Task: inverse folding
């Protein structure tokens, strides 16, 4: 298979992402109401939540495909696992940075050792260590095998992060409120909900697009120098 | 009266979009470099 040729579906996905990301920005900035207390900074929330969702989804994909590698020993699964985790790290970083910017005027601090923030930081560091581990291993087979095991163990930080606001006392708001948890819940208007779901959809699309590109890069790197990759 | 947090909103979107653009650029650069390496004749 010629990896240099871009599949038509990926071209369509690229175009959709390039159109929908600016559209989502316009939707969030100009068509959502300004929150009564927090003001315009609350609009960061739509992309903050979407980035956190995309990051966690990437880490879950990384674990599932890591498991698929251990079962089949096919390198394609390792490429998909490592690609998902790399893209997931970018989204996790976005969630942390945007959360800090949102927190500064609302909590009057950039960072607080709240359970949600702490577990998110732990999750991000655990996945950062995944790449440190891989870079220290010599052969492709060892990297893929240990990377897959690590990805499966590391995914435990995802439910810990997600449920931290329900399990512990926290000042972080509960976005998906089901009655549980100590944190304050959001009361969103229909326009806010529309913007949130639109942002979640756009970020999911972007996730697929970025992981696909990163997967093609991993494939290309392997074909270029299989002894190194 | 909502708080005046327009600057923080602009900073938030700048960081989000800036990080996404930076990662996309890194993917493009790495892919181009690998393609170039692939097309070079092997010694």
Result:
């Amino acid at each position: 298979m010629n990896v240099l040729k871009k599949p038509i579906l990926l071209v369509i996905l690229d175009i959709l992402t390039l159109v929908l990301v600016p559209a989502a920005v316009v939707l969030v900035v100009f068509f959502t109401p300004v929150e009564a207390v927090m003001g315009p900074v609350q609009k960061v929330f739509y992309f903050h939540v979407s980035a956190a969702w995309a990051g966690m989804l990437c880490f879950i994909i990384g674990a599932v495909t890591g498991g698929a590698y251990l079962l089949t020993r096919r390198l394609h699964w390792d490429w998909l696992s490592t690609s998902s985790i790399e893209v997931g790290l970018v989204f996790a970083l976005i969630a942390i940075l945007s959360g800090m910017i949102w927190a500064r005027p609302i909590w009057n601090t950039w960072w607080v050792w709240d359970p949600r923030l702490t577990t998110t930081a732990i999750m991000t560091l655990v996945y950062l260590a995944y790449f440190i581990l891989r870079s220290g291993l010599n052969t492709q087979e060892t990297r893929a095998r240990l990377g897959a095991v690590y990805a499966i163990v590391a995914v435990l930080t995802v439910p810990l992060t997600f449920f931290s606001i329900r399990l512990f006392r926290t000042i972080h708001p509960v976005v998906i409120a089901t009655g549980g948890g100590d944190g304050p819940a959001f009361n969103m208007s229909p326009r806010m909900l529309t913007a949130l779901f639109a942002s979640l959809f756009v970020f999911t699309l972007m996730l697929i697009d970025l992981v696909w590109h990163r997967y093609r890069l991993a494939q290309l790197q392997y074909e270029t120098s299989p002894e190194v990759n | 009266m909502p708080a005046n947090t327009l600057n923080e909103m602009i900073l938030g979107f700048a960081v989000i979009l800036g990080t996404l653009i930076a990662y996309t650029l890194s993917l493009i650069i790495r892919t181009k470099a690998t393609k170039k390496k692939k097309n070079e004749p092997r010694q």
